[in-house]
Write a structure and sequence with these properties.
Number of helices: 3
Structural class: mainly beta
Helix content: 10-25%
Order of helices and strands: EEHEEHEHEEEE
Shape: globular
Largest sheet: 9 strands, mixed
Distance between the termini: 15 Å
Radius of gyration: 18 Å
Strand content: 35-45%
Oligomer: single chain
């Protein structure tokens, strides 16, 4: 049986978020709720180690789901390594694109971590649990935590003992297929996993998928 930590409850909120649906190629359109992969990214921003793997259990929605349409400047292509030599200028490659993003988001993430095959003899659940709780309480991150897109910075903190669920998200509702996570192969390829998400009582239950 895989060793796992206790379940942690982490609050993540911010003025804007965009968890991009993959079926929209040119214009960005956000899912209605945070994706499990985005939630994992927030947790890894606080604590990432090769010896552990984060598993998201459920996502609680603490704010009404509200959308806002904006126009953003984005580059049309990805910069290649040769661009550093050829003097790539982003201003010459910019395009204005529409984005349908989420406004005023607030979540509580329930998750635990498991030890991986890369864990050493000195790597224990207690060691990483205490490290995570200490870093979370102090607001420490390895890199800036964000809500889907890097410009939408997240405030990450311990979850309150109690919270209120908005009336608009209490009823059971089908959200359709949502990206759960990506499994990366040794060749650098990425295999996406989706699940049929349902929000009920303000929470989305996430099935466990191990690579």
């Amino acid at each position: 049986m895989t060793e796992r930590s206790p379940t942690f409850k982490v609050r993540a909120r911010g003025p804007y978020a965009c968890f991009t649906r993959p079926e929209f190629k040119t214009e960005r359109v956000s899912y209605e709720v945070m994706t499990p992969s985005a939630a994992r990214g927030l947790l890894e921003a606080v604590l990432w180690k090769p010896a552990i793997r984060w598993c998201v259990e459920r996502i609680h929605v603490l704010a009404p789901i509200r959308f806002e349409a904006v126009r953003r400047n984005e580059v049309a292509t990805k910069a290649a390594l040769s661009d550093a030599v050829d003097h790539y200028f982003a201003d010459d490659d910019r395009q204005q694109r529409n984005t349908l993003l989420l406004k005023g988001v607030d979540y509580v993430i329930e998750a635990h971590f498991e030890l991986t095959a890369r864990a050493g003899a000195e790597d224990t659940l207690r060691k990483f649990s205490e490290m995570f709780q200490r870093r979370l309480a102090k607001g420490q991150c390895f890199h800036a935590a964000y809500l889907g897109c890097r410009e939408f910075v997240a405030r990450v903190e311990p979850a309150p003992e109690r919270w209120e669920v908005p009336e608009s998200v209490r009823e059971r509702r089908e959200l359709g297929l949502i990206l759960q996570d990506l499994q990366f192969g040794v060749d650098g390829s990425a295999k996406p996993f989706f699940f049929r998400a349902v929000i009920s009582g303000g929470a989305v239950e996430v099935p466990l998928v191990r690579p």
